[in-house]
Amino acid sequence: MKKLLTLSFCLSLSLQLFAQKKVLDHADFDIWNSIENETISRDGNYIMYSLERGEEDNFLEIRNLQGDLVFTHERGYDGEFTFDSQFAIFTIKAWEEDIRELKRAKTKKEDMPKDTLAIYHLNSEELVKIPMVSSYQIPKKWAGVLAYQLDSEAVPYEEKEEKPGKENGYHTIIRNLNSGDQDSLKYVMKYAFAEEGEVITYVLSDKAEQGAGVYVYELSIGDPLQIFSAEKAKYPQMNISKSGGRIAFVADLDTTKALIRPNELYTWSKGMNRAEKVVDETSAPDGYLVSADGRISFSKDETKLFFGLATPPILQDTSLLEEEIVNVEVWTYDEPRLYTVQEMQVENDLKRSFLSVIHLDEGNKLVQLETTELPNAELGNEGNADFALANTSLPYELQGQWEGGLYRDYFIVNVSNGEVKPAFEKVRGRVSLSPAGNYAYGYSSADSTWFTFNISNGSRVDLTKGEVFFDELNDSPNFPSAYGSAGWTEGDNALLIYDRYDIWKFDPDSGEGLRLTEGRKKTLAYRYVKLDDEARFISEEEPWLLSTFNEKNKYGGFSEYNPKSGSINQLIEGPYSFGRPRMAQASDEIMLTRESFEEFPNIHATDMSFSNLTQVSDANPQQSEYNWGTAELVNWISLDGKELQGMLIKPENFDPNKKYPMIVNFYEKSSDGLFSHRPPTAGRSTISYSFYTSRGYVIFNPDVHYRIGYPGESAYNSVIPGITSLIEEGFIDKDNIGVQGHSWGGYQIAYLVTKTDIFKAAESGAPVPNMISAYGGIRWWTGLSRQFQYEHTQSRIGGTPWEYPARYVENSPIFNIDKINTPLLIMHNDEDGHVPWYQGIEFFVALRRLQKPSWFLNYNGEPHWPLKRQNRKDFNVRMAQFFDHYLKGAPKPVWMERGVPALEKGINQGLELTDSK
């Protein structure tokens, strides 16, 4: 009897403790951390990351692989380890609250707090702080030094000296990390470390005592060498080869205000005293000049220098007065790019450069690889290859307006002499070069086929013709996409291609294919994990790490594949989603994240065996104090007979005998994200799942299967039976169901409420109520016409309004708004670059005309969704008030009762609750 009483007491106590868990509120958004900029040291002993709390201040942490805290610092950002894993370098910013107070005090920008550079020695635990640093660099593949530039306000200077800054250059310090010794360089315009050689190059302005020009500094020698000198010159482009043995730069030596800049290209090689000019306006190809915007690079073997040529700019007559200039837009029906697209791309067009090469070991021979007629080229074998792959979409750009994708013609360009040979025409889909440059390869979406093209003999081989290596679930009136490729094996011997589940190995010349995995039988998708970011080939000598995803239960995991024996060993699998593993460069230590709805994606450490997964970070220990939620997979049959899945999120203290209000939130297909963690955040367009479940809501996210031509009906056929199947379970309050979605989700909600009264309240963000007017709209962020979306992609109509007028009308909620009985909250912003905001206005004014309960939110100056934190927080508060009123009987807020008059905008938000229910 005593044991029974003790057990009863313990159970009662645990229930009391559980009941005492806190409920999430909007203020709690600000105490939740996210993990940013995680990195692992090269030796694999340390992991560094920053915790960003509520988008306020960051807290940098360094931990060992057992999860022990090694070092922490408030306000630490952008940390990186040195190549020798001896030091951690990071930036310290001022307190965000201090910044806000200074802004309130109208403090000038130059008087605002500056960043501090921090250097932490991992062995000695010594921390060095250097204040007022504007930027820093460390070498990529060697160690021992760091270079940083001081802010102009940090440097004391005499009256006779010029103030450091953008025009004169900054004071730059080269610091020996081990000894602490420092070299100071004044008035540095730009600088760069060689990736592998212990060399730094830099440019001094004409304010420097040493003399203006370009310098190379071999640290082992100790004396900088001036390789170029010129007063008042500008250097828009500069680069140093990996070894440090070559330097190239573009120089503008003209001190006049000429509108056409006479840029010149110079090179220097080790052993030369001075850089030599290799291209200028007289030696450049006809109709081209040296570009100030084209990036400079060297081939891996450093025998070739790649740079950009540009066409001369179109000049305005500077003698014209403003009132004499005619500004008119002339839109032409058959020009390749729509005028609105041209406008969006003006800046890029002005900076457009055309790839060219200087053969440094062949008398600086110049070969142009890209031209205005053939504007896109890809180099092979890290620039070492004899051929480049060039393409143009110009003949097909006009039809891209309504097709949404571009065809391209491809050509092989001889890097030695510029000779161009056609390879293949009108390919829909990107074609690339194999790592060694022996093949062009890609996926032609128009015929759903992977293919290779042997550059040496010009033969094309269709690898997957007639086989299903394309999206098996494609439900858009568009060519199905591919599942992708893992890459190439050593020496371009084989191409690895994915189908829905498996990895296949193809011979690029014979086209013979071999399936390497057996995932289809288990509905298990295998994908190759690239652990070394610099690896160009997939080894057939070492084991491969493969990620796994089970389509049926959504479990994530990892397997090891032995390419010699073909055996597969499942290393880890479970009800989690795993982030991409990243391996230390000099060991087999791996860091990755693991998450579920209940588990925050903390950083974990392991090795290639995955036998011991150790949690390293603990970003949000406070989560255990709150009533959270659980996620599960649900299944049902759509009204048109399709088997569907969805996510059901229940409160942590769920009681199957109670009736819960439910919010339905959906887009297209989301059930694969069952084990994604959803922290309480002020989202820009969707409900916060953990926030609502904590407050006693159930969340349902159903997958939608689409029938081409009938997207609205498809949403109805998929979503409504999913809801009714849950009502039949007995724990959903059928009289208190809401629905929320944004953009495509907002459209589907607008359609659903014209067909059903099952929802008591609905929030529809950035909706399209009128497909006819939307078809003729512009996506203002890109300038693209919206036509392709309706004919071929997401809107799924499958043709034009004159081909299928009935489809456009039937799928447009605007023609059935009188059938709506559901109160609506609409959010659509006046700078929306995806969905023209007049669509939201059309929706609202029609509801207003019919006096249907509705409210419209427009966050001024915001795009497709509110980005500013104060606006996102405001939207989340209003949406919660809206649903709490209709689904829980909470009082109305002032903004729902009487609105917020224009005179009060930005002053009174109307968030106070009234007595009205």
Protein model, in words:
With 917 residues, the protein is α+β, with helices and mostly antiparallel strands. Among the domains are: 28-246, Neuraminidase, CATH 2.120.10; 626-904, Rossmann fold, CATH 3.40.50.1820. 14% of the residues lie in helices and 33% in strands. The strands form twelve sheets. An eight-stranded mixed sheet has the order 46-47-49-48-50-51-54-55, with helices on both faces. It has a seven-stranded antiparallel sheet with strand order 9-10-11-12-13-14-15, with no helix packed on it. A hairpin with a 5-residue loop joins strand 29 and strand 30 (439-444). Helix 7 crosses helix 8 (744-752).
State the major sheet: 8 strands, mixed
Task: Bin the helical content.
Answer: 10-25%
Mean pLDDT: 94
Q: Categorize the overall geometry.
A: globular
Q: How large is the count of helical segments? A: 14
CATH classification, class level of the domain at 626-904? Alpha Beta
Oligomeric status? single chain
CATH fold-level topology of the domain at 626-904: Rossmann fold
What CATH architecture of the domain at 626-904 do you see?
Answer: 3-Layer(aba) Sandwich
Strands, count: 55
InterPro entries: AB_hydrolase_fold, Peptidase_S9_cat
Signal peptide: 1-19
Pfam family, one: Peptidase_S9
Keywords: Hydrolase, Signal
